[in-house]
Amino acid sequence: MQRRALALLVLALLLAAVPTAAQAKGASAATISGGGPGGLPGGPIDIKGDGEPGSGGGLANLAEEAGLFAVLFEGGSTAVLAAPPAGARGPRYTIAWTFPDGSGGADKVGQSVWPYAAGGPLTYLAPGQPVLDTTTRGGWYRAGDDLRRSLIALGLPRRQPVPFPAPAPAPGPAGAVDSQGRPAPGSATLPHRGAEPGAGWLQAAPGAGLLVVVAALVVAAAVVLTLRRRSGPGTAAR
Q: Which of 84, 121, 188, 237 could form a disulfide with 147 if both were Cys (CB 3.0 to 4.6 A apart)?
């Protein structure tokens, strides 16, 4: 009977210790602040709850969407980026996560968030932050648009993602013009250079040159006829 009671006591102690260990793995609170000069219109946003991964709570879902656990401890995650991607990011916010350490204290971990970044929300967790007897691994993380929507539902401004810059127009064909008769973007319209050096006045005015050539031929024919008359048999002397 005593052995059975002892076993039940040990089991009860183990069951009591499980929630504490599980809670130590997830955040218990988060504070969202930032967003540029003046911060959020209503001040920082405080969130509390069960942040244990997979618990389904609002705090846990926010941590999952922000990629917190992927950059917190996990190594080799394909979602972690080696460098920030290109593109405008928009305003930056900060999420300060609170992790209970199991001894009555708590660790604070800061994560930067760009909810409106071009290409999707972007987050960054600095490495080396003390948390739960270790340090954060850190890194960049490309989140899904569900993070932007969740943050808007919590009180962030209702804004669309920053668009990527429009691509430069492709070069058009030489001499192309738009509807207003202006050179089209990228078209290789060459300026008028006039007659080439050494081309002469015949190339500059082909009609006048032709008339001159005809006149010269007429004069030449008249000269030939005159010379032939002078060289013919003369009148006999009496």
A: 121
Question: What residue segments make up the domains of the chain, in order of their start?
Answer: 23-154
- Measured between alpha carbons, how far is 221 from 21 in angstroms, rounded to an integer? 121
Distance CA 205, CA 212 (A): 11
Determine the number of helices (DSSP H) and then strands (DSSP E) in the chain.
Answer: 6, 9
Closest CA to 87 of 26, 150, 140, 154: 140
> In angstroms, rounded to a whole number, what is the distance separating the alpha carbons of residues 59 and 80?
21
Residue type, 222: A
Q: What is the pLDDT of residues 79-134, one digit of tens each?
A: 788 888 888 999 999 999 999 987 888 999 999 999 999 999 999 999 999 998 88
Structure letter (DSSP) for residue 183:
B
Tokens (6 digits) for 227: 């010379």
- Tens-place pLDDT, residues 179-233: 566 666 555 554 545 544 544 444 444 555 566 556 667 667 776 666 666 665 5
Give SS3 for 27. strand
